[in-house]
Amino acid sequence: MSESASQEEPKPAQENEKEGKERNQEATKVKEPFKSSQTIPDSSASGTSSNVAGAAENKVKSQELNLEEQPKISTYSIKDSRVSKNTVFRKPAKVIFNLDQTAQNSKVEQPWKKNLFERMQARAQAMQQKIIDKENLKKELEKKAEEKLPRDNLAKEWFNTENVTLNTRTYLLDKLLPTLVPGMEKMLMQVEEKKILAEVDIPTKFDPVNHLGEYLMRNNPKYIKDSGMSGYQRVMRDITEDLKIYVPNTTYNRVSKMKENIKQKREQRECINKVKAEVANTRKQALQEQFDEWILDPKGMIPKIVIQNVLHEFFQNPDFQLEACCQQLDIADSMEPRLNKTEFMEFISSHIADFKSEMFEELLKSLCHCADEFREVIKTDMRRQMFAELFLHCDRGKVGFLDRQRTLAVLETFYDQSSKVLRGLLRNPRQWPFVEFGEIDLPEFWGDMDNQKHIYEDFDKALLEMNTLLSEKHASKTQSKILANPEDQHKHDKDRKSTLPQSPPEQQRGTTAEQEPNRTSTNEQEQDKESTGEQELNKESVARQGNFTGSTPEQGSSRERSIAEQGAHRESLLDQGQPRGSIAGQGARRESLLDQERPRGSVAEQGARRESLLDQERPRGSVAEQGARRESVAEQGPHRGSTAEQQPPTETIPEKQEDIDSTSQSIKGSILRESKESREAISCEYTEIPPQEESTEGQIYEEQLFMSPELQEKISGSSRQGHLSETAKKEVQKDKSCEPKSQKIEGKSWSGELLTCNWNTKYAKCEDEEQADLIYGNSKFTDLHSIIRNIQSYKEVKSRSAFNGVSFNLLQFVQLLETFVGEDAPLSVSEALTSFFKKGFVETKEERMSGLKEARQNASRVQRELLLNALFQKWDCDGSGFLDLKEVDELLYTYKEGMEKESMKKAKLHIQFPKPYPGHELRLSPKQFQKYIELVVSELRGNEDEVLESVVEFLMNALGRSHVESLRNCARQKWLHQIQHAAETSGVSLEPVYTETFKALTKDAEAHGDKKISAHISLLEENLLLPDRGNVLLRNVACTLDDAPFVLNRVLYRDMKGISFTVVDEGQPIHVPQVQHHGNIFFWNRSRKKNDQNGSFLALPLQDAYMRIFGVLAVDTLRDPQKINIFLPHEIRFYQGVASVFSTAYHYVHSREHILHVVITGIGWLYNITSSITGITTYFTEPSPAKDSDYVLRNMMVTGHLGLTEIHKNPPIIFRKTCIFRDFLFKCTDSSEVVLASVCGENHIVVPLRERTGEALGVLDVSIGRNKMLLYREFKDLQKMMKVIQVACNEILGELSGETKKNYILEIENMGEVHRAGILFFRVMLKELQECLRLLTSMDFVSLMLYDYDPLAEAKSPDSQSQELEANVKLVQDILRGIILFFHPELELSSDLGNWDQCKLYLNQNLVENICDFDPTAGKLKVNLKLIDEYIRDHSRIEVWKFGNTTIEYLYHWAHICLALMKLNQKKDSAISPPLPSKTDSCVYAKMPGGSLPGKC
After folding, report:
1. What is the per-residue pLDDT for 1142?
2. Which backbone phi and psi does 1119 adopt, to 5 degrees?
3. 3-state class (DSSP) for residue 421
4. DSSP readout, 718-768?
5. Residues 6+ apart with CB under 8 A from 662
6. Cα dihedral sign for 320, 324, 328, 330?
7. What pLDDT is stored for residue 1077 in this prediction?
8. Cis previous bond, 1474, omega within 30
9. Closest-CA residue to 425 (of 601, 120, 682, 639)
């Protein structure tokens, strides 16, 4: 090493010597041209131009020489100084041991290389600068010479681009003529000077040819490079350069073309940049105008997170395909960052720089729409803050909750005392969702068909009357038009004859179907636009019709029928104008914001668009009207969308327009006059009014809410009469559009505070954190503080309120009042409710003391759980997940020196411990340990809280744990938590659980055992292929990576070697210290030699909550290089803890999968009996990926309009900060209550799926489109579905935790867990219906037996009544015949089935008992499903509903459920399968098993 270092040191000096020699050689080479140029004689002749050129040339040469000599001197001096300063020092060599030779060489070579590179770089830069200076000087001198020498333009005659002589001319001008022409000129000058031409006869020695030759030789261009040029030569040189460009296939030609292309591209680029700059300026101006549309804080700014949400929603629109732009959005976590107008413009411009004009217009429309939505968000936030302050005012004891029943009583009183107009805004607090499912009796829940009990008062009746009115008007107008044409009169008569025998429901269907031909193209609609007033009234009437969607009497039995048939089932003109697309077009589950709104005008119109005065004077329209609010006249054009996605819009005929206008006005009058229709007049939206008029208008409306209906009618009538002039309305609307948008909401300014993003942080109360802080301040439990901090950090899903049915916390109270008031009500209604609530909500002293006592008990319970969990983890230092009861008793009995031993023994009499295996100790889980300690404390004397603290302190101090054990326990608890965390954040997938399990095993083996392990997990399966080898088998479903080729997906049978089945049978882990000496170990890797089969093997059972074995976790050290490496006791206990946590995580994932299975079944059942639901999205809650953050929602699956459910393999994550405009999902999850919301004109019913603790584990977002609410029949069916799903979820979760035992009722449930989850929805519904049927009396069936049809008796009755009676008789008899065939299948071949008198004999008490005990999946059951199906499915759901008989309602649902279960039982292997997608699929589509359930209404 030292030698190499000494040899390398002198190299820089040698390099300097070589460099000096090179400099000297270079200097001599540079001087040679100047010497040669000086020796060349001057051959210039007499002449003015030649002398001037010679003088100029000499000056150029002299200056050039001076320029070249100066840099040389300077560079030499610099370089010499460097050489003189370079000194070689011998430094002591560094001796480095155990160093790689390559690294050593690189370190040695690095200094001289660096110096060499620096010198070479300096030298190259100096040479380059010298050349540049020389060229610059040359150009400057040439420029001066050109100024002195005049240009001779005579040389331009040589320029000719003729192709024949182009090459020759170019060659001559380039090579010969520049020297020949001056030579000829000088030769002629000599001839003239010597007067040879004048004295021709006189002989002379002058030979012109020799003179010319001598000149050419002396001025050879090869040797004379810098000779002076005359003006003629200079012009000739320029001509030559120009001609070279036109010579094809030459360098000059190619270069010229390249320059031309570059020039064109430069011009194009400049043009594009100019256009881009103009577009950017135009866009900035548009954004500046759009900024004024937003409501601003007092400083004139907008929260940045709001604009980020707007962009996020726009980029997420599937129609635009801009998902990649979302990655650039780093959405803020708070409302603090704000944007002024300039920052607003720059921020948006930075994200849309590459947008085309069409996309920018779409963005502007989205921004305008979101600006309106943001006003609604602020209004909702104001209302919620108002209700939060009300809660704090009513919670005088500061206990954090209010009594639920008292709250509902106050709401009921307010609702009853309100006028009918106000009740049209409010929601009935006596109905769901205010009343829970468990509070409704089964007969009322399943058999109540009273439309008056809707959440909106008289909703169905007002809907039907308005629909009938519009249908009759349209039919009469169509008939008059047809009769006016004689050719069509005959066809009309035929049609009328064919429709005469129709029943009233069929007539309604026919009337609706007639509307379908009245559609025209979009272009025709543009040509038929009417005046502003007509469009305004048309918009109002159409919006009112939008509420009637789904009110048709009957529809088909499948959602897969064509869109034209779907249009016939909806009477709404709004749905005809904006129909759903084709089946292919419905692949996108959500329409874009643009498709949900009418198109907006230009940028200038968007900045100035406003509502008409008509909308300002009248109350807010229905929810369907909200989608078209705040639009100018120019914005009411044809609807967007291609014909492939939408049906043609409705034709706007002037006569039909007038019909709609008159109908609309008559409807408004009838609604205000009739109390039962008053809701339609108020379910409206309030427009913005100027600040000086806003307070007065609000006071007037508030007075209207509480005044008498007669006075309201007069006021509304006078207001209608004031708007009959179409021209006046047009002018007023035009003036209104020019007004600036108000910065106030109903006369109130926005404070700038928005609690949508941080509502939980301000108002949510976490009892765990408060009690943990109290424990941290208690010095008794210092040893438990770190453990409690870890426990608190592991609780990641926070800020969710548990619904207990007894009281409301602040979030639940605010959400309840917001649901009660609704989104359409103005703030004055909320203020009236607040003042009424303050007066009406009065708590007695006893109730207040009871609340305080309950709060203290809750705090004590939480503190007790924290202490005992921390104590358990400290005791269980190995992370096994259990404690030995004998060890616990031994330590407990030493409490107070054994004085409380007898009292503690009494506690064992009140607790049921799990039965231990023979010969094994009794183990306590954390819950059992907590319960046991609480029972022991209850037996001791003194205050329970003080005694508990004393016992915990005693046990904590008695447990001696070293620092190493504490650190090991902390690490293991973290690894165990990561397994459960993987299950909770997996999106219902087991792969992350397997990964984290093996990571925990590997990390612990390396950190605490110094081992290299292999592991695999095998699960029990039923052996169907080879039952001779055992009823069950073990299949390896996961393993460590190195063992995958040998272990994964392999099967172990009972007749094979191995101890795994012994572990399954005994339920205890088995440790084999040395597998090579055991003799009964099965090696999966057959290629391993026997000498290499050294190591330890550990097999642990996997048990569920009922201590049943479902698999084996195996760990070995065969890959460890040490021959003998056994597992220590603390390692075995930790592996037992890993097996326990894995079992919990495994069943957690499967429980979520079963819940999804139940939800799919329930959604399929609901879709087959309703038509107004446009989509259902299912979400699950998960911990947030970021620490100390809020929870997130996983979009698990989406069900479209056709009932096809798309289940995602990688479900997208939804964060709260991205849902400012769609926060209803998080409102539902936070409060665990039902939320009714309207976003972008689309109404949602969001229902929580609750855990057994009352917290929301997920939500179901039911979208009903632009309908304000479902019909009562559909609303009740939605309640039935949600109740059954919730009951099934409770059963699944109870079985997961072991709180409830598995209840197998139907025979098909024994087929397995997957089959059971697939039919659980139907089983729960079947049991509830059987309970309802048990409550029926004999008279209920007797009334059905009396239904018979006598044609002679009914001959005198009107045709409509006769047809209705005949239909009802057929309904009753067919359903009862179908029920009888379930229990008497032999009647299908008998004539008794057709004789109603004979069928009556089978309607007895035994029939009811058989129905209540019937198992449709029994193996011995044989019935004719096809015949029963013919009797039942001929009758639609609405027909049964209209009949209004509770017994028929029960039997109808019971029969359909039995048919569905029977069909599932027949094809159980193919119809029931896990709903989740496979590893290779990105998503999977599923439909309800047994999808042919009841027909649509």
Report:
1. 96
2. -90, 0
3. helix
4. HHHHTT--HHHHHHHHHHHHTSPPPSEETTEE--S---TTTHHHHH---HH
5. 473
6. positive
7. 82
8. no
9. 682
The Cα-based distances of 888 to 893, 929, 950 in angstroms read 9, 9, 16
3-class DSSP state of 1036 = strand
Q: Which residue type, as a one-letter code, is found at position 572?
A: S
* Cβ atoms 1234, 433 nearer than 8 A: yes
Neighbours of 1360 (CB within 10 A): 11
Instruction: Please give the C-alpha separations between residue 389 and each of 5, 396, 402, in angstroms, as whole numbers.
Output: 82, 12, 13
Tens of pLDDT, residue by residue over 493-548, are: 444 444 333 333 333 333 333 333 333 333 334 334 333 344 343 334 433 434 43
pLDDT tens-digit series, residues 285-306: 999 889 988 999 898 899 999 9
Vertex 151: Cα angle to 149 and 155 (nearest 5)? 140
Which segments of 760-896 are extended strands (E)? 807-808, 883-884
Is 1431 within 8 Å of 1422 (Cβ atoms)? no
Low-confidence ranges of the chain (pLDDT < 70): 1-109, 225-227, 477-740, 756-761, 764-765, 796-797, 914-920, 1188-1189, 1348-1360, 1468-1497
User: Burial level of 1306, CB count in 10 A (0-12/13-18/19+)?
Assistant: buried
Reported pTM: 0.73
The CA-based diameter of the chain, rounded to the nearest angstrom, is: 163
The residue among 342, 353, 352, 338 whose CA lies nearest residue 307 is 338
CB 1322 within 8 A of CB 1283: no
Q: What DSSP assignment string belongs to 178-190?
A: HHHHHHHHHHHHH
User: What is the residue whose two structure tokens read 């002024």?
Assistant: 340
Distance CA 423, CA 408 (A): 16
β-bridge mates for residue 1022, sequence order: 1032
Structure tokens at 1272: 């009562």
Query: Could you give the strand order of the β-sheet that contains 1051-1052, starting from the edge strand earlier in sequence?
Result: 1051-1052, 1032-1039, 1014-1022, 1109-1116, 1097-1103, 1070-1072
Name residue, tokens 């969710």.
Answer: 800
Phi, psi values for residue 150, rounded to 5°:
-75, 145
Q: How many CA atoms lie within 13 A of 353 on its CB side?
A: 7
CA distance 483 to 1443: 38
Length of the chain: 1497
Instruction: Specify whether the CB–CB gap between 622 and 498 falls below 8 A.
Output: no
Under 8 Å CB-to-CB from 262, ≥6 apart: which residues? Answer: none
- The mean of the pLDDT values for the chain is 75
Calculate the alpha carbon distances from 280 to 266, 320, 348, 522 in Å: 20, 21, 11, 33
Placement of tokens 């100018």 in the chain: 632
Dist CA 300 CA 193 (whole Å): 94
Helical ranges in 160-230 per DSSP H: 166-171, 177-193, 208-218
Note the pLDDT of residue 1061. Answer: 92
Long-range contacts of 242-248 (CB under 8 A, 24+ apart): 242/159, 243/158, 243/159, 243/161, 243/166, 243/169, 243/170, 243/173, 244/170, 244/174, 246/161, 246/166, 247/166, 247/167, 247/170
Q: Check: CB of residue 1181 under 8 Å from CB of residue 1258.
A: yes
Q: Are 505 and 1368 in contact (CB under 8 A)?
A: no
The β-bridge partners of 1179 are 1195, 1259
Instruction: List the structure tokens of 851.
Output: 């609340």
808: β partners: 402
Label residue 39 left, alpha or beta by phi (over 0 means left) and psi (-120 to 50 means alpha).
Answer: alpha
The confidence score (pLDDT) of residue 202 equals 75
**Whole-number Å distance between alpha carbons of 49 and 911:** 128
